């Protein structure tokens, strides 16, 4: 039997494998399978940068009141103290951190001088030291008695494939911050969706119509799916267009359309596509009454093909996301009547996503006219943002993204190259991102107000 393909394998710079060599994806899979209940928190800057910066007072993770007193953690008790002062409440819990090979006697502490503010301290620095912004802490409680109870903990870097797995498995929306989840409920929900559609697949196969059925149920083209998602958002918002000058948060709209609405649609189509594809791989297109032994043999004999198919399905979302994001930005420019050229050829193999107002104007702005600019779009960046540097040729370059996990050193490096980053309004102000600390990061609202609108009159006269 061929070795199974790691559906979550990625490039060398992927954060799915930590510094100790443990595969975070494998640890997460086990946690999702074994844990009856999980507490998941998207980490704020203060939750992680104590492990990355010197002279930080906070040395742990903030736990909101609702989660602190919700039954997941042991109840707090009054700390006995010799000195006078405001009461301190605390509880201790045994925590395991398999990705760094440490077990801790962690402390949940509330200094009442700070109100209800509570932190989980005495956690391993190594588990937090290299995390990107908006990474996750995942905790599961095992055992029943006070002495037997243990909390298994995992930090998941937001730039890793393990984070994609976590978000998908527990259906964490883009604005998710903290909540308890029951993994079995989400697995059951997924199975029910598959079984509902499987009946249609089986009927089509038995009728000898699986090929035509597959054609009818195929994943829509990227543009069609983008239009469907945008239509849902417009209906929800009570709007007829996404003119960025007509509402306060155009960046947040881009994020909701591409990261929430469109992903839900994509996932539904992909689930159906996988069901049909696997039936065709194992049973073929001709109807019949295959014996169970034949089905088992087909599964074993064609396992490498099944693995390749599942791997390609897993990567399909990433491949489509960037193109789809471009479609939404293009529609925003059109609705805002912003002049632009798309994929204009500047040099061999150098085609910026958008040039405003035109390539000719960008290369040599007429005397007395505002200069043009380059607008590039990438839903997620990682190291790929460095590709846009080749597109600049001395021009102003703005890089739009809905990615929330860009580290401070990458933002600073962009600034040194003259690249300005455009992010959704919510992310610009978020405590989970690094954006608000950097002057070269603008919200989409600021970009359209202070950059585009001030140049449009000059561009239109040209």
TrEMBL record:
Q: Per the UniProt record, which residue ranges are transmembrane? A: none
Tell me the ranges covered by the Restriction endonuclease type II EcoRII C-terminal domain, including all copies.
301-447
What SUPFAM superfamilies does the entry give? Restriction endonuclease-like (SSF52980)
Region Disordered: start and end of each range? 1-21
Pfam family for this entry, one: EcoRII-C
Q: What is this protein called?
A: Restriction endonuclease type II EcoRII C-terminal domain-containing protein
Instruction: Supply the source organism for this entry.
Output: Bradyrhizobium vignae
The organism's lineage is: Bacteria, Pseudomonadati, Pseudomonadota, Alphaproteobacteria, Hyphomicrobiales
């Amino acid at each position: 039997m061929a070795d199974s393909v790691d559906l979550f394998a990625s490039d060398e710079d992927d954060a799915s494998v930590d510094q100790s060599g443990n595969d975070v994806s494998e640890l997460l899979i086990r946690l999702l399978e074994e844990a009856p209940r999980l507490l998941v928190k998207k980490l704020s800057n203060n939750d992680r940068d104590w492990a990355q910066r010197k002279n930080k007072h906070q040395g742990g993770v903030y736990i909101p009141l609702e989660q602190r007193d919700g039954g997941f953690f042991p109840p707090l008790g009054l700390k006995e103290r010799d000195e006078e002062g405001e009461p301190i409440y605390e509880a201790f819990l045994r925590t395991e951190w398999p990705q760094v090979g440490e077990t801790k006697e962690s402390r949940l502490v509330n200094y009442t001088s700070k109100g209800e503010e509570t932190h989980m301290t005495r956690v391993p620095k190594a588990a937090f030291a290299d995390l990107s912004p908006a990474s996750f802490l995942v905790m599961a409680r095992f055992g029943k008695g006070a002495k037997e109870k243990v909390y298994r903990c995992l930090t998941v870097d937001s730039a890793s494939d393990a984070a994609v797995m976590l978000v998908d498995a527990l259906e964490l929306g883009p604005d998710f911050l903290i909540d308890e989840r029951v993994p079995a409920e989400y697995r059951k929900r997924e199975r029910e969706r598959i079984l509902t559609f499987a009946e249609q697949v089986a009927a089509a196969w038995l009728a000898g119509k699986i090929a035509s059925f597959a054609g009818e149920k195929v994943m829509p083209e990227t543009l069609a799916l983008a239009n469907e998602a945008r239509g849902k958002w417009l209906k929800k918002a009570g709007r007829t267009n996404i003119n960025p000058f007509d509402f306060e948060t155009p960046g947040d709209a881009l994020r909701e359309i591409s990261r929430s609405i469109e992903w839900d649609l994509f996932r539904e189509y992909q689930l159906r596509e996988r069901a049909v594809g696997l039936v065709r791989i194992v049973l073929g297109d001709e109807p019949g009454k295959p014996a169970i032994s034949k089905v088992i043999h087909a599964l074993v004999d064609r396992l490498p093909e099944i693995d390749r198919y599942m791997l390609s399905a897993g990567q399909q979302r990433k491949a489509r996301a960037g193109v789809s994001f471009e479609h939404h930005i293009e529609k925003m420019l059109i609705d805002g009547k912003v002049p632009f050229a798309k994929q204009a050829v500047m040099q061999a193999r150098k085609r910026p996503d958008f040039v405003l107002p035109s390539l000719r104007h960008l290369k040599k702005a007429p005397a007395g006219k505002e200069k043009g600019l380059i607008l590039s779009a990438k839903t997620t960046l990682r190291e790929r943002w460095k590709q846009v540097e080749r597109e600049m040729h001395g021009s102003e370059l703005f890089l739009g993204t809905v990615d929330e996990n860009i580290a401070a050193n990458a933002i600073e490096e962009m600034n040194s190259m003259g690249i300005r980053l455009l992010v959704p309004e919510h992310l610009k102000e978020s405590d989970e991102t690094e954006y608000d600390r950097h002057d070269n990061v603008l919200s989409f609202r600021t970009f359209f107000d202070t950059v585009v609108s001030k140049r449009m009159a000059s561009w239109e006269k040209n």
